[in-house]
Amino acid sequence: NAGVTQTPKFRILKIGQSMTLQCTQDMNHNYMYWYRQDPGMGLKLIYYSVGAGITDKGEVPNGYNVSRSTTEDFPLRLELAAPSQTSVYFCASCKDRGGYNSPLHFGNGTRLTVT
Amino acid sequence: AQSVTQLDSHVSVSEGTPVLLRCNYSSSYSPSLFWYVQHPNKGLQLLLKYTSAATLVKGINGFEAEFKKSETSFHLTKPSAHMSDAAEYFCVVISLYGSGNTGKLIFGQGTTLQVKP
After folding, report:
1. For A57, which residue in chain B has the nearest alpha carbon?
2. Residue A29 belongs to what domain range?
3. Residue A43 maps to which CATH number?
4. Exposed, middle or buried, B60 (CB in 10 Å: 0-12/13-18/19+)?
5. SS3 A109
6. Touching check for A56 and chain B: CB below 8 Å?
7. Are A23 and A5 a contacting pair, CB within 8 Å?
8. What whole-number distance in Å separates Cα of residue B24 and Cα of residue B33?
9. Which of A5, A43, A81, B40 lies 20 to 30 Å from A108 when distance is taken between CA atoms?
């Protein structure tokens, strides 16, 4: 059982470039989340989705976009990369309401550097 | 609004000695609280959770935490540290705002646990 798979593991972007961080899960979870992790800051929620076709903004959505065309996939798009987006990005999924009744399952992260 | 504060950014213990990682929370109503662990270059894994049942919660790998409403605390403890416990630990509270009551998690800043031989 693969769980939550994120690709790529590492990426270096130049300012103004765009890219998509991929996230897929094989657990048939409805809830999916994108977090960014900066040193000493914990994890901040970027976007989340409660099911296919439904997405909503989290705490720090500016500069990002998401889509949820299938239950399995929840890609995160950076359109115009900026140095402030240098971070480690984590995708997570959950069977139901955000970790209350069942735990979040995390991917291993994508380490992104924007120079 | 809900929030959590982890009181120590870095804790260092010797192998075989007790571990204490401190977390205070703020919530206008009864919270649900979690501890997650992150080993190097890995995603986060649930250690334990409190959801208004027993105030002393036991988790994986010998960790436990006690919910103390009077002190608004949810400290994580372990009687005897192992080298494999070296990791970053996050205290987390669930926030029930947002459409559909999604239960978004609010993370503390994290505590790095170092275990010395």
Report:
1. B98
2. 4-114
3. 2.60.40.10
4. exposed
5. coil
6. yes
7. yes
8. 10
9. A81
Minimal Cβ distance to B104: which of A4, A58, A105: A58
Residue of B9, B34, B103 lying closest to A40 (CB–CB): B9
Q: Where are the domains of chain B?
A: 1-8+24-96
Q: At the topology level of CATH, where does B1-8+24-96 sit?
A: Immunoglobulin-like (2.60.40)
Specify the amino acid at residue A38.
D
Would you place residue B105 in the very low, low, confident or very high pLDDT band (cuts 50, 70, 90)?
confident
User: Do the chains contact at B105 and A56, CB–CB below 8 Å?
Assistant: no
B10-22 pLDDT, tens digit each: 999 999 999 999 9
Question: pLDDT, tens digit, for every residue of B53-98?
Answer: 788 999 999 999 999 999 999 999 999 999 999 999 999 988 665 5
Determine the Cα–Cα distance for residues B86 and B23; give it in Å rounded to an integer: 18
Mean pLDDT for each 10-residue chunk of chain A (115 residues)?
90 96 95 90 90 92 96 96 96 79 87 95
- What residue type is B95 in one-letter code? S
